[in-house]
Specification:
Helix content is about 25%, strand content about 20%. The chain is of the alpha+beta class and about 350 residues long. The longest helix has 23 residues, at about 230-250. It is elongated. Uracil (URA) binds near residues 105, 106 and 192. Uracil binds near residues 106, 192 and 283.
């Protein structure tokens, strides 16, 4: 935040660590907060860092906004505290206890997660309305058919409804497993794992490789780096750009103005600790594989030949005809000739 940029009083207090948004809201309405020695009871009163804000006479100061990109290793919980986990994500970054993770990854999932104290941006990135793209590489068990790829792309019928269209690419097919890259624009609980299970391909390993404009390039598992100002701006724009498209497409209403979206986000959430809605939460469960592999329950969609003709799947060793349709057993040959490896891009 630039020094002169105004923000809502309730935002200021939450950012000063006074409490959750709800408790700050109550403090303000109760008359416990002064701005430049004047009692203010309107939580959305604008203040700047030059204003002197006090709670029951004690001056408080909003913290500088901080943004880190972390490459979460396996076994680390992506929460601020978890009595059952050996390690939590905020402990990977010095001073990380004052930050909160933007969305979640399963304990077993590796990859990119943002830590910040910027609740407005966090909310925008997590909100399904904004559909910020997230790219994962999954190692799945089994042979990937064109039909499965088609279904994953078009939408999978999960318990709570169809998934929205995804970009899906088979990177490599080995004898028993395959590497598949998938980009989704939602963040439902254990979404990627459940999508693959639904098409009969249980996930053995999962890694998030891209988050909006950010990639894991140069960031080893367990590593972190502070985002540059330019990257933070890119993230903000990613939210705004998608917000416009989604507002137009889904709601059929005029584009949501960035300022309105910002206000809405500020109202909805200030600190990640306050975000409990599962609708916003990515993969917040830390359970094991959600369902056993049940080939009979796999969903499928008709293969789209025009799509297939242009797809890069030939390179990954995918046959022209769906194996399942021909009723043939999996081909034990390993088209790429390479042994299995962790789901990294260089497997392609
Ligand atoms: N989808 C999942 O299934 N798990 C994650 O950790 C993230 C997305």
């Amino acid at each position: 935040m630039s020094p002169a940029q105004p923000m809502n009083l309730v935002v200021y207090l939450a950012r000063a660590g006074v409490g959750s948004r709800r408790s700050c809201d109550e403090l303000i309405r109760d008359g416990a907060v002064t701005v430049n020695d004047e009692v203010v009871t309107f939580p959305r009163q604008k203040v700047t860092p030059e204003d002197v804000v006090a709670v029951r006479g004690e001056p408080v100061t909003a913290q500088e906004l901080r943004y880190f990109l972390v490459n979460k290793p396996r076994g680390v919980a992506s929460t601020r505290s978890d009595p059952h986990a050996d390690r939590v994500i905020v402990d990977l970054v010095p001073g990380g206890r004052s930050l909160f993770p933007v969305g979640r990854l399963d304990v077993d999932t590796t990859g990119l997660i943002i830590l910040t104290n910027d609740g407005v941006l966090a909310n925008r990135l997590m909100h399904p309305r904004y559909g910020v793209p997230k790219t994962y590489v999954a190692r799945v068990r089994g042979k990937v058919s064109r039909r499965a790829l088609g279904t994953l792309r078009q939408g999978v019928d999960l318990e709570e409804g169809m998934t929205s269209p995804a970009d899906v690419r088979l990177k490599k097919q080995s004898a028993k497993t395959a590497l598949v890259e998938i980009t989704i624009h939602e963040g439902r609980k254990r979404q990627v794992r459940r999508m693959f299970v639904a098409v009969g391909l249980p996930v053995e390993e999962l890694s998030r490789r891209r988050y909006g404009p950010l990639t894991d390039k140069g960031l080893e598992p367990g590593g972190y780096r502070e985002l540059t100002g330019e990257e933070v701006e890119e993230l903000r724009r990613a939210g705004e750009e998608v917000a416009g498209e989604v507002a137009k497409e889904v709601e059929g209403s005029p584009l949501m103005l960035a300022a309105e979206a910002q206000e809405e986000a500020a109202d909805a959430v200030l600190t990640r600790a306050d975000v409990s809605s599962e609708a916003y939460t990515e993969a917040s469960s830390d359970e094991g594989e959600s369902q056993p592999f049940e080939a009979g329950e796999a969903q499928s969609a008709p293969a789209d030949e025009s799509d297939l003709a242009e797809s890069p799947e030939e390179d990954a060793g995918l046959d022209d005809q769906d194996e399942a349709e021909r009723g043939q057993p999996d081909d034990p040959a390993e088209p790429s000739g390479a042994p299995d490896a962790p789901p990294r891009d260089d497997d392609a």
